[in-house]
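Thread: Newbie trying to understand structure tokens

Hi all, I'm a second-year student working on a class project, and my supervisor (Dr. K.) asked me to get a predicted structure for one chain before our next meeting. I've only ever worked with sequences, so writing a 3D structure as a token string is new to me. If someone could post the tokens and maybe explain what I'm looking at, I'd be very grateful. Here's the chain:
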Amino acid sequence: MITVSVCMIVKNEENVLARCLNSLKDLAEEIVIVDTGSVDRTKEIAKKYTDKIFDFVWIDDFSAARNFAFSKCTKEYIYSADADEVLDIENQKRFLKLKQAMLPEIEIVQMYYLNRSKNFNTTGNFEREYRPKLYKRLRTFVWEDPIHETVRLWPVVFDSDIEILHMPQSSHGIRDLKLLWKTARRSVGLPIEEKKEWKELEENKGKKQNRKFLEIAKQNGELWEAIEQNEESKETIEYKKIEFSKKLHHMYAMELFITGSDQDFLDAEEFFSLSQEQTFRTQEEVVEAACVCARAARLQGNISIFFKNVVKLMAVGSCSEICCELGEYYFLLGDIAEAYLWFYNAAFETESVLDIHTSQELPRKRLLEICKKNKQWEEAAEWEKQIQEFTNAKVADY
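---
Reply by user tm_fold:
Sure, no problem. This is what the structure looks like when written as tokens:
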């Protein structure tokens, strides 16, 4: 039977941490908790389950924190968990069976991820999907093929039947969008607000506290460079350049459409305008950027920029997001017939690329409103029926 380290990064999770760890404590030989700056009872609760608790200075980088956490694990496999996840009794049994039957060549195990909070999803285009959750800590490279042999590069992945319940009690949307905004701007050299960590170091010149901060910072590895600049031991923290990947580009645009406020779109417009001009961006990324920029331009009343992005997108195809934007533009302009056309296209003639709701209930709600304005009661009843069907389907999923 394999051995497993449960590995978590946490911050202010006192409301959900015990629930998570109670569902995992009998499944693992080791629990590793990395705290990124809790000011509540999170660490106190964690101590009831493990003595392997580490501090990590937050540097706006989840990967850095998880890499640090992984480095503290010692067992054969690492189960990466979030505090708002739960394994129920049935899936705890499945997990134990997996431990007993695991083949040694398996390097990653995927598990079903089930959203169980319809109000707090920031990337809610799915209710159930596979995610990699269990990782072999040390990978052995092997040669393949009897002639012209090569080293196998891709990991051996097993798709399990284990289901993880994602049960958040609050939305991470504000946190995620703030970090995405900072990361995106840093990647293209745009200015960002002065970091809180920099301000604290500037204000606190006491050697004792600075050195304690420096000691913790050094645990973070290469992502931080802590430098003594003068005899007063004034330390600064230097962020290394960040590349904004295709995945992050998609996630940023998607989270904007699913959970972003009008101001979030306005804040994001400068980056997505620049990203459209980056020669390495794919057609899919240009479409995502055009959707964001079109929304921002419409909100600002900048009609020329709005249609510039619409036309750019239409040149390579269409999507329900841009159809909804056109529908909203004409609806607010008072051109109800044209608005109806574009909302109808969003609902039936196109597919979503960022927010599935732009092809489901969102355009239908506007179509319903238009029919009521025009006193088309029979058609309005049909839109109400379709909206209710989407609502019922979501309730059934939960």
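A couple of things are worth pointing out once you decode it. The two ends are 34 Å apart (CA to CA). Residues 245 and 255 are 15 Å apart (CA to CA). Feel free to ask follow-ups in this thread.
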